[in-house]
């Protein structure tokens, strides 16, 4: 029996994507070959890569606006490095909203001066700093749109006069934004887009080519763009499953429809967190993430019984990250409202028992 | 109907691996979850990673010899960079036996002086240079064990007094060697080990830690070793399918048995290339690869008819790389002797028609 999967990532993908992804292992598009054994230079796979790159830009409404999409190896952690390699000449501004921002800052420091313009570390990253401004004399501004671990999300992005880079690993394709306000968007696939092993990068080409640094080929966005995201053998299967997921998003109403459903799910669980005296939310209310709801028990002694109850209800992955404790309900695009209702029911059941 | 897949990589994997890999997408080990949606920090996946790392060392007979195995993102192309990042202090020696060696040399030059000790470029990389020696005052010696594009393979490795790094992407697990003669072995998974998207690195730990350079976390072997190959979200599925393939190798007699079967397949096709007046081999006879047999028609006008014939025989991926032309039969571990016989039969059929 399928579990209600609230895992923070890798995470749930649409059931029909799993079905198609499984079939393609046995026989890809009636080719007599598995998707795992076809050449990445075959027409069949070149078509997969091209469709995935185009569809990503289409869903983000970035077509014909000077952007290129790439599917690269390495996860967002590799992008902490690649963004700095390609764009950090002298100094850059970073907003520190949690673990992933902190890691991005650490890597960027190897390439130039890093100005941490604001940080919510003072309150264990439970809010999004808002009072800061970004000077014009820096190479770029970097931020993390959604903080998986702490359950916060940037609702309004600052207006800056320098290129803006955003790590959207945990909320890309989940809500409507003017994506053209960003010059580089990157996202590890393993939340709303596909399995672990591929990373989407959408780059406004005009921000490239300003560096004097020698960039190794695998680190160089221009090389990957020139080679149409096939400089080396790409992570074929992760790209293919990402394409299946992007097709599913499009067929189900695009980002607009995803956002509507995600708001409904988030509303359902946050209402219960606020209503139920046994629970309290972790993140500042105005900064709550629609993707990852973090919450704690008001009485920690109920942990054992609550854990038993949600596991019995066939729920997976509800334990919080060690930095926050308590619980985290990750509600990516593919998670159903019914799954959230199951958790809410268990929370109410716990209240009745108390 | 399944094709006879001679693709150079990504390439054929064992049929039972495809079956297991397909099933795990629907339900991984009766967990009620897909392998694509489980957390990489779950016990189930941590066990996969640990077994894969151990089994790789076991098959290479490198257990308890100071080596660590890692499954990293990025393919061998990333290792061109990582090996230099971690080990090239001042200068290093590279043997240039083809496209992949040349690429490794190009990336290493960003990190220090590179001495190309020998090259077979003078004859379009159709042989392996043998008369060279490696000075003691360099950081390491780098070579490519098998050249997929040109169909050559190093049969005997030089004795060197410096660390030896070997790119074994296209022949790892295919033949018995004293693997402990190497200090770093790396291999993109997508030939004998699994699907594209993961890279095995086996490192003798004692060669690390000699650099003064700041190494970005994702580039740093020590970081990946310390984090047990989970510094960031690993390419979960590619690692899992690699594990399935390693288990298949072990269950089928290990590298020794693979080598026996590979010799038989190589013998079959090379005999036909040498016997059949319509064909000639590309690589120097003593340097012929058991993995990739490269050959050309003696009369190019027969190309159209030969291409039609092997395609009709349900053969896939026999066309040679553009650098060599003609044909390339890639005969990785999972390819059967029967598939090679199909190609040999077509070659003989062409001869009868002539």
UniProtKB/TrEMBL annotation, chains A, B:
Molecular function via GO: O-phospho-L-serine:2-oxoglutarate aminotransferase activity
Residues carrying N6-(pyridoxal phosphate)lysine: 191
Entry EC number(s): 2.6.1.52
Main location: cytoplasm
Annotated pathway: Amino-acid biosynthesis; L-serine biosynthesis; L-serine from 3-phospho-D-glycerate: step 2/3; Cofactor biosynthesis; pyridoxine 5'-phosphate biosynthesis; pyridoxine 5'-phosphate from D-erythrose 4-phosphate: step 3/5
Cofactor(s) named in the record: pyridoxal 5'-phosphate
Residues that hold pyridoxal 5'-phosphate according to the record: 76-77, 100, 148, 167, 190, 232-233
Subcellular location: Cytoplasm
Reaction equations catalysed: 4-(phosphooxy)-L-threonine + 2-oxoglutarate = (R)-3-hydroxy-2-oxo-4-phosphooxybutanoate + L-glutamate; O-phospho-L-serine + 2-oxoglutarate = 3-phosphooxypyruvate + L-glutamate
Signal peptide: none
Binding site for L-glutamate: 41
Cofactor: record remark: Binds 1 pyridoxal phosphate per subunit.
Top-level enzyme category: transferase
Assembly behavior: Homodimer.
Family stated for the protein in its record: Belongs to the class-V pyridoxal-phosphate-dependent aminotransferase family. SerC subfamily.
UniProt name for this protein: Phosphoserine aminotransferase
Organism the protein comes from: Autumnicola musiva
């Amino acid at each position: 029996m399928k579990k209600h999967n609230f895992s923070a990532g890798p995470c749930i993908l649409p059931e029909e994507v799993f079905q198609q992804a499984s079939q393609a292992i046995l026989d890809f598009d009636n080719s007599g070959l598995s998707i795992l054994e076809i050449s990445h230079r075959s027409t069949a796979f070149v078509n997969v890569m091209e469709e995935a790159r185009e569809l990503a830009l289409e869903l983000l409404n970035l077509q014909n606006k000077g952007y290129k999409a790439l599917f690269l190896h390495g996860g967002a952690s590799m992008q902490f490095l690649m963004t700095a390699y390609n764009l950090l000449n002298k100094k850059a501004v970073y907003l520190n909203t949690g673990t992933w921002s902190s890691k991005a800052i650490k890597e960027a420091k190897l390439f130039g001066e890093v100005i941490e313009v604001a940080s919510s570390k003072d309150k264990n990253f439970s809010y999004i700093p808002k009072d800061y401004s970004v000077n014009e004399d820096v190479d770029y501004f970097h931020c993390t749109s959604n903080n998986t671990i702490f359950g916060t999300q940037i609702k309004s992005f600052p207006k800056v006069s320098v290129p803006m880079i955003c790590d959207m690993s945990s909320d890309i394709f989940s809500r409507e934004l003017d994506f053209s306000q960003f010059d580089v968007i990157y996202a590890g696939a393993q939340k709303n887009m596909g399995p672990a092993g591929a990373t989407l990068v959408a780059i406004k080409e005009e921000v490239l080519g300003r560096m004097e640094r020698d960039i190794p080929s695998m680190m160089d966005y221009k090389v990957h763009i020139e080679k149409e995201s096939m400089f080396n053998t790409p992570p074929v299967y992760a790209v293919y499953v990402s394409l299946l997921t992007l097709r599913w998003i499009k067929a189900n109403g695009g980002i607009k429809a995803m956002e509507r459903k995600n708001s409904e799910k988030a509303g359902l669980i946050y209402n219960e967190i606020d209503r139920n005296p046994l629970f309290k939310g972790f993140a500042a209310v105005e900064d709550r993430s629609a993707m990852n709801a973090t919450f704690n028990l008001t009485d920690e002694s109920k942990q054992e019984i609550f854990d038993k109850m949600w596991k019995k209800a066939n729920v997976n992955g509800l334990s919080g990250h060690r930095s926050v404790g308590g619980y985290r309900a990750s509600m990516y695009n593919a998670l159903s409202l019914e799954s959230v209702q199951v958790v809410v029911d268990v929370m109410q059941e716990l209240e009745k028992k108390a």
